[in-house]
Amino acid sequence: MRYPEILRLGTLVALLAVAGCDTDELHRLNVDPQAVKQMDLNYLFTAAELGIAANGSSADNRYTDWRTNIAMAGHAIQQLANAGGGIAAGDKYTENFETNAAYFEFTYNDQLKNIAEIMRQTGPQGYAPGQYANMRHAARILRAFSFHRLTDLYGRVPYFEANQGMEGVYFPRYDRQSEIYADLLKELDEASAALSAANPDEGFARADIIYKGDVGKWKRWGYSLMLRLAMRVSSVAPALAGEYVTKAVAGGVFTGNDDNVWVRMATGPSQWINQNGISRAFFPGDGGQPSFLSKTLVDFLKGADPGTVADDDPRLMILSGGIADWTATEWKPINTDPLAQKGMPNGYDQAMLDALEGRRVNQVQTYSRINHKLLQLDEPYQIMNYGEVELLLAEALERGIGSGISGTAAGHYNAGVKASVQMYAFYDPSLAVSDGQVAAYLAAYPYGVAKPALPMIYEQLWVNKFFNWWDAWADWRRTGYPQLTPVNYPGNVTNGVIPRRLRYPAAEAAGNRNFSEATQPDTFTTKVWWDGGQD
């Protein structure tokens, strides 16, 4: 029997089956008894918050961090170094296809998908218009955070038509970065202003694992993120930057480390969702990423005189746990003397290290590791902090961007350094730094005296974002500081140029018929718009 005959027969059987049904029965037949009547928006919101900490993959919290944050960004900006093993595309400028694809694919399919559903259901055509006002506006802030990182990593990305598959948009267009940033700033402005304690809660406080429904803190994050985005485009869109720096300051940015954005993690019930993905990437017996602190970072933290601890950055023995052997059962210190700390040079393999040192190098016994106190499986995951905000305010004053900023650039710089140094006590009380220690460090390197002011600000932004390497990579691309020496490992894919962006996933290039609108050429050295590239 041919296919058209089967189709006609099936239609006839169906008509006969319902011939005796009345209208109500026909209606009931058309309703799927298993269909979900409405989504639990509180669940979706919590999942979206976990998504920005798992960075795109609530199915595997270490996947994107390991491949993109650690492997590319952390090594490209020379805070980490790797002489072989694990994933470390940024150390020697090699290509890892999972590194390219991870953030793009998982972000659209995880937190942005959940946020799109929240926006749909709380909008005019949803089942809960107006009932979840604060959740809706907080979700807009989460959405702006996710999209700004996406476009920073790739350049042009689907934005205005993204996550609209339910509306029949299967091949979203790629949007210019200038248009994306303008809309992100508008979204942050509107969402931050609309958040209010007078809005109905509808479980928002229970769903919110970042601020527990504290609307004041959400508003301060929205305006602080606005400040970051405004400064990111300040070299290519100074008028836009000035407008939104002014709005951010007027709205009210972070005022202390109590405002820092932390997603609380836990050891269970699921190691794949609840545990800290950065920790899992490095934890022996789990990820076991064999990277060490880089020579660039350790030398910076040891200060101008490596022969004394008097001018050391207080973060030296916070970020470094020392030269140590770390197994799945034990952290065994080998040398915790600050003067003995040694970073691994970037761009070296084992044979090159042996030649450099003139001996067979035991990496574990030679180079400083990330402090294991920062890498426990239930460590909180930091998204943004007060120290960054103060440093951005210092930069805005130095460059004359925006208005309404009180105080001096030096005052904001000092506050930014102090907050950056002291925020690690949130991980472990033993990592607390006293006001006196901070004052001594600032006195050793007076603002605008030890170096010109702007390079000092930019270097402090770089070290502030340890763990938040993708954003530190963006800051370095924008500012050019610290002044890094590129590597030229044999067979690298950039001709010895530090990567400026990620390549798009191969599946996107093959599957989206609008891919010709994406940033081109699709190479690691093509600059994005705010980095001086084409829009």
Task: Provide an overview of this structure.
This protein is mostly helical and 535 residues long. The chain folds into two domains: 41-277 and 379-384 and 465-531, Serine Threonine Protein Phosphatase 5, Tetratricopeptide repeat (Alpha Horseshoe); 284-374, no CATH class. Helix content is 46%, strand content 5%. The protein has 22 helices and nine strands. The strands form four sheets. A three-stranded antiparallel β-sheet has the order 7-6-8. A hairpin with a 4-residue loop joins strand 6 and strand 7. The longest helix is centred in the first third of the chain and has 22 residues, at 133-154.
Short précis:
By secondary structure, the chain is mainly alpha-helical.
Give the CA-CA distance, first to last residue.
57 Å
> Which overall shape is indicated by the principal axes computed on the Cα atoms?
globular
Question: What's the β-strand tally?
Answer: 9
Strand order of the largest sheet: 7-6-8
What's the number of domains? 2
Topology of this structure?
Blueprint (H helix, E strand, L loop, with lengths): L2 H16 L4 H7 L11 H14 L8 H14 L3 E2 L7 H4 L4 H13 L1 H11 L11 H22 L2 E2 L15 E2 L1 H18 L9 H4 L7 H18 L5 H14 L9 E3 L13 H6 L9 E2 L1 H8 L13 H4 E7 L4 E5 L14 H8 L11 E2 L10 E4 L1 H14 L9 H14 L12 H10 L8 H12 L4 H11 L26 H6 L24
Antiparallel strand pairs: 1-5, 2-3, 4-9, 6-7, 6-8
Helix pairs in contact: 3-7, 3-8, 4-6, 4-21, 6-7, 7-8, 8-9, 8-11, 9-11, 9-12, 11-12, 11-17, 17-18, 17-20, 18-19, 20-21
Please give a handful of descriptors for the protein shown:
535 residues, SusD-like_2, Cell surface glycan-binding lipoprotein, utilization system for glycans and polysaccharides (PUL), SusD family, 3-stranded antiparallel sheet, mainly alpha, 22 helices, TPR-like_helical_dom_sf, Serine Threonine Protein Phosphatase 5, Tetratricopeptide repeat, 2 domains
